[in-house]
């Protein structure tokens, strides 16, 4: 018997390490924390303040929103926007206020929750070419979305600290 067949027999009927419900809650927990990070910025600094040539937090948030919004659609449908069509360059920040940015953030949160439950569990093991540039299993792409958000939120933490503002507790994702 081949090793793959033995593995399949041994794991048949076992529950996954993390359920789809727990995974989306984990993702949404990170999104709640990133939202708190955005909220902590003074209005004028959100769109203009940067360190070391990095994008302002609004530009970083836009990238997170683009990946989340277009990513959940791609996961659900297999249809992905090309990376060139994503809007997250600093010069394309399309919001004029923190309120507008956070309102769009909240709309994406609702979209994720609505679409998530339409995704069959086996979809997470399928391979796609996300955004025309990143090939991988859906589960790996989703973990990348989360990692990318954590990375950019950390940049926001650095900005807040250099402004003398205490960032939200990194462990508080409620």
TrEMBL record:
UniProt entry keywords in alphabetical sequence: Metal-binding
Metal-binding in keyword set: yes
Record's keyword annotation contains Magnesium: no
Matches recorded under Gene3D superfamilies: dinb family like domain
Organism superkingdom: Bacteria
Pfam families associated with the record: DinB (PF05163)
InterPro entries for this protein: DinB, DinB/YfiT-like
Family according to the record: Belongs to the DinB family.
Protein known as: DinB family protein
UniProt source species: Mucilaginibacter sabulilitoris
């Amino acid at each position: 018997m081949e090793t793959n067949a033995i593995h399949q027999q041994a794991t048949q009927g076992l529950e996954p390490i993390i359920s789809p419900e727990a995974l989306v809650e984990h993702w949404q927990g990170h999104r709640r924390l990133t939202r708190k990070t955005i909220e902590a910025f003074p209005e004028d600094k959100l769109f203009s303040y940067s360190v070391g040539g990095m994008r302002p937090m609004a530009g970083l948030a836009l990238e997170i929103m683009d990946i989340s919004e277009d990513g959940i659609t791609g996961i659900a449908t297999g249809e992905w926007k090309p990376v060139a069509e994503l809007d997250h360059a600093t010069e394309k920040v399309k919001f004029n206020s923190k309120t507008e940015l956070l309102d769009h953030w909240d709309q994406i949160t609702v979209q994720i929750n609505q679409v998530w439950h339409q995704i069959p569990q086996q979809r997470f093991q399928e391979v796609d070419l996300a955004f025309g540039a990143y090939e991988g299993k859906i589960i790996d792409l989703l973990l990348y979305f989360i990692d990318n958000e954590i990375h950019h939120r950390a940049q926001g933490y650095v900005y807040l600290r250099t402004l003398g503002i205490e960032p939200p507790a990194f462990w508080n994702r409620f």
